[in-house]
Design a protein that fits this description.
By secondary structure, the chain is of the alpha/beta class. 32% of the residues lie in helices and 36% in strands. It has 2 domains: 116 residues, Nucleotidyltransferase, domain 5 (2-Layer Sandwich), CATH 3.30.420.40; 52 residues, no CATH class. Helix 1 runs parallel beside helix 2.
């Protein structure tokens, strides 16, 4: 029996679906960027939500086709981003389509739906490429409208924002 985990992230600028084998091998990563009209400094939440709703079925379909070709027969869990950060009150509508799809898939596959912040996803993705990180470290998080310095504690996976910008322009340069 070959198992995989699905991951879904619907941020302000990208719809993303990924799959990872149970042994941790990264196998699939499909993304659709959200287009920003030239001259604009971002996208309205309701437009991004609509575009995520349109993109998710196609990306999930491609991911499932890839998994079948690789012989995966079981989805063991589904993860999704549900908010920008873990701070109380952190909310953006763009994360609702991904969360809804992840919860639906978890129900259909009879598995757990694990929920994370977008920030946690960025930090964890960076950790995959760096195996010798200490138990506590500082991270620079530059994403869309966010530029922050974070204190990361691996035990319990706690993240504390210790600095950052007040405007969104720096994060949008990427």
């Amino acid at each position: 029996m070959k198992k995989a985990y699905l991951g879904i992230d619907t941020s302000c600028y990208t719809t993303s679906v990924a799959a990872v084998l149970q042994d941790g091998e990264h196998i699939i990563d499909h993304r659709t960027p959200i287009p920003v009209v030239e001259g604009m400094v971002g996208i309205r939440q309701q437009e991004a939500v609509f575009l995520h709703i349109k993109a998710l079925p196609k990306l999930i379909g491609r991911t499932m086709e890839d998994l079948r070709r690789l012989g995966v027969d079981t989805i063991a869990g589904v993860g999704c981003s549900i908010a920008p950060t873990t701070q109380e009150g952190s909310y953006m509508p763009v994360f609702v389509p991904g969360r809804s799809m992840a919860e639906s898939l978890a129900s259909a596959f009879d598995c757990r739906c694990l929920q994370f912040s977008h920030q946690q996803g960025h930090v964890k993705a960076a950790e995959f490429g760096k195996s010798d990180l200490p138990e506590n470290y500082l991270a620079l998080h530059v994403s869309g409208g966010t530029t922050e310095i974070l204190k990361v504690e691996k035990a319990g996976y706690r993240i504390e924002t210790i600095g950052g910008t007040r405007d969104i322009s720096a994060g949008q340069t990427i």
